[in-house]
Amino acid sequence: MNKQHIIASNKAASDINQPSIQLGISACLAGNKVRYNGGHTRSRLCLDLLSQCFTFISFCPEVEAGFGTPRPTMRLIGNPASPQLAFSNDSTSDLTAQLVHGFKKKLPKMNHLDGYILMKNSPSCGLERIKVFQPNGHPHQIRTTGVFAKALKEQYPLMPIEEEGRLHDDKLFDNFILRVYACSNFRKEVLEVPSLHNLIIFHSRYKYLLMAHNQDKYRALGRLLGSKTSVPLATLINSYFCDFIEVLSKPASRKNHTNALFHILGYLKGNLTSVARDHIIEIIHNYNNGLTPLTTPLTLLKHHLMQHGSTYIQHQRYLEPYPEKINPVIRYL
Prior knowledge:
The protein is of the alpha/beta class and 333 residues long. It folds into 2 domains: 3-69 and 95-129 and 144-168, no CATH class; 170-333, no CATH class. It has 14 helices and 7 strands. Strands 2-1-5-7 form a 4-stranded parallel sheet. Helix 2 (44-49) links the parallel strand 1 (21-26) and strand 2. Helix 6 (170-191) packs antiparallel against helix 10, helix 9 (215-227) packs antiparallel against helix 10 (233-249) and helix 11 runs antiparallel to helix 12 (274-288). The protein is elongated and about 75 Å long.
C-alpha cells in the first residue's frame, strides 16, 4: 500500500468516527482566534461535551467578510427594525453591506446542518437582546438580532438555533438538543427515502414526545396524515415538518409530561405487581409535585419496559430523545 492509499484509508477511518449530525457554530466558540481583539471564547460545553455527538462546522461572518483580526469593535446603530453595522468609534461607517456580502453565498450551503449555536451579544451573531445605539450614544430600549443571525433564521426558519450562553440553562439545553435530534431523525428517516409509510412511522415514534409538548397539536398532526394523503407527498412532508417543529419548539410542561408518563405506564398493565405499579404511580406523582426530576420516573419506566414493553413502546423517542451521555445534568423537570 503506497502513501496515498494510507492517507486515503486513514481519512476514511476518521470520517467513519465523526458524528453524523453536523451543527454550525460561531468560530470564536470553536476556539478560533477570530474576535475583535484577536482572541476567542472557546465553549467547553460545545467542545468538551456536545462534540461527543456532533460535528461542528465553524464560521465567522465578520472574518469571512474581510474584517481583520484584531479589528475595531463594531455595533448596531440606527433604527432597531433595520439597524446598520458600524465601527463603535465611527458611526458614519456603514459596514452592513460588506458583512452581508461575506456570508450571503455561504448561507445556501448550510442546508445540511441540523442546528446552529451562536455567540451571544455579537452584532453579527447574537440571536436576541442585541443593543442598537442612538446618535447620542445611548442604546434603544428595543433590542434586536445580529445581522448574520437574522439572515440565518430567515433562510432556515425551522432549524434549531440557540445562543451558547442560553444552553447553560437545563430546560433550554434539553429543548435545543431534542430538536436537533428530531431534525436529524427526520432527515434520515423521512427525507432520505420519502414515503407516506416512513412519515407515519416517524410520527408514531414521536407520539408521546409530541403529546408531552401539546396534545391538541399532536392530534392535529395525526389528522393531517390521515386526511390529506391525496395531496402531493412533498407538500404533505413539508406541512408535517413545519407543524412538528413548531410543536417541539416550546418546552413541555410538567402537567403534560405527567400525562405522557401515565399513558406509557398503561403499556405495563398486567405485567406488574400491584406493589410495583403503586410505586411507579407514587414516583410520577412526586415528579408532578416537583419533588423529583423527570429522569426518575423515566428511568423506572424504561427498566420495566425493557422487560415487558412491546417493540412499539420501546421505540418511543420520548423515552430517550437524545443520548444520555450529552446530558450534563439529570433532566431538569
